[in-house]
Write a structure and sequence with these properties.
By secondary structure, the chain is mainly beta. It has helices at residues 67-70, 121-126, and strands at 13-20, 23-28, 32-37, 51-57, 60-66, 83-89, 92-98, 100-107, 112-114, 127-133, 136-141.
């Protein structure tokens, strides 16, 4: 069984599902702070290709990660339909650029399956489980693995 912070006593998990290209992924809803429409970003020099840039979020600088590029899929072609999901990763707020938000779902423990052992290391790093709903399979993302490791200041 995969534990998530929002697991209720009954064993249900609330998730928010979104699309990146043709694939669906989800995150625990307790990590989500807000949903925003696409806002152009200010690029940062020398940042990884999947870091789209930063935006101003009520006076705070918010890095925006292109989820397609981060997971080895084609980078998002941005337009008004794109969504930035603001999530809390550890102590940091981060924006996840996705193509669209699909659903907010409640998933019982039986609907949450482990990532298959045949998955590549990259997939296993980002996807901690699969949510199975009817004919859909939605990858549950491990937010803590989305950001690059930051070396402590000397």
């Amino acid at each position: 069984m995969i534990e998530t912070p929002s697991a209720a006593a009954g064993g249900d998990h609330e998730i928010i599902a979104f699309r990146v290209g043709e694939q669906e992924f989800c995150v625990d809803i307790m990590a989500v702070r807000e949903l925003r429409g696409w806002t152009p970003t200010t690029p940062l020099p020398e940042s990884p290709a999947y870091v789209r840039g930063v935006i101003n979020l009520r006076g705070s600088v918010l890095p925006v990660i292109d989820m397609g590029a981060r997971m080895g899929l084609p980078a998002s072609e941005t337009d008004a339909r794109n969504v930035i999901i603001v999530v809390c990763v550890g102590e940091q707020l981060v924006g996840l650029l996705v193509d669209s938000v699909c659903d907010i779902l409640t998933v019982a423990d039986g609907g949450l399956q482990p990532t298959p052992a045949v998955a590549c290391d990259t997939l296993a790093t980002f996807v901690t489980g699969l949510v199975t709903l009817d004919d859909r399979m939605i990858g549950l993302l491990a937010l803590e693995h989305l950001l690059p490791a930051i070396a402590p200041a000397a």
